Amino acid sequence: FIHTETSVAFHRVQHIDISQGPIERLCGVCQLVLNTAGTLNSKISLPGLSRATAEALRDEIQQHIRADKE
Fold first, then answer.
1. Strand order in the sheet with 30-36
2. C-alpha 29: how far from chain center
3. Which residue of 3, 7, 11, 70 is most buried, as measured by CB atoms within 10 A?
4. Following CA atoms 33, 38, 40, 41 in sequence, which dihedral angle do they give, to the nearest 10 degrees?
């Protein structure tokens, strides 16, 4: 019922985690968690992803972060 869109600049991402609680493990899903600089919306979570999708997104975001720093 609630739809939220959040945009985060790559340079604001501090680190990226893949999280999976016990219920998520049973369902075969996990969530990608972006921790950003600042306090407002400093933790962005993308729930309901397959592990392969979460890892692919994490890797792609990390590549963009590295490219922005060069």
1. 13-19, 30-36, 43-49
2. 14
3. 11
4. -10
Specify the pTM. Answer: 0.82
Residues 58, 18: contact at Cβ < 8 Å? yes
Q: Strand 13-19 vs strand 30-36: parallel, antiparallel, or unpaired?
A: antiparallel
Instruction: Specify whether the CB–CB gap between 46 and 58 falls below 8 A.
Output: no
Give the model confidence (pLDDT) of 2-39 as tens digits: 888 888 888 888 999 999 999 999 999 999 999 998 77
Rounded distance, CA 41 to CA 49, Å? Answer: 20
